[in-house]
Structure formats: structure tokens, C-alpha cells
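#structure-requests
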Amino acid sequence: MKLSRLLIFLIIKIVFNGHHNIILLNYSRRIYMNKIGLLNLLSLIVGIALIVSGCVTAYLFQKHLFNKYKNEVKNTINKDTSSNQ
């Protein structure tokens, strides 16, 4: 079906314009738009990967780095509250 539409489009262009260059330009624009679509898809994948990797890095820092000092902070708070009383 798409091939028949393309053929009809080409025939109309030849009959009304008579210039083969216009047909080639229109066809090359379609190919270029497909390449732009692929680049957009690639940039979308890279953007999502960056966001996910940033979230995973923040989660790991929060889980492992702050968990390491969690008990020390609790002990310090307990010492301060017991000395004040």
C-alpha cells in the first residue's frame, strides 16, 4: 500500500512539475527525516540511561555511605542526651 502511494506521488510530481530533481529532493527529505528519528531515539535512550545511572548512584551512596556512619551518629546523640540529663 505504501509503495502504491509512493508511485502515485511520483507520477503526479512528474506530470504536474516535469522536474525529476523535485522528486529526488522529496524522497531524500523522507530519508533524512528517518535518520532524525533514529537520532532522537538514540538521544532518548542515552538520556534515560544517564538519569537512571544518576538515581542508582545516589541510592547506593545513601544506602552504603550513610549507613556506615549511622551507628556513630546514634551513639553521639545518645551520649549528648545522657550528659545533658
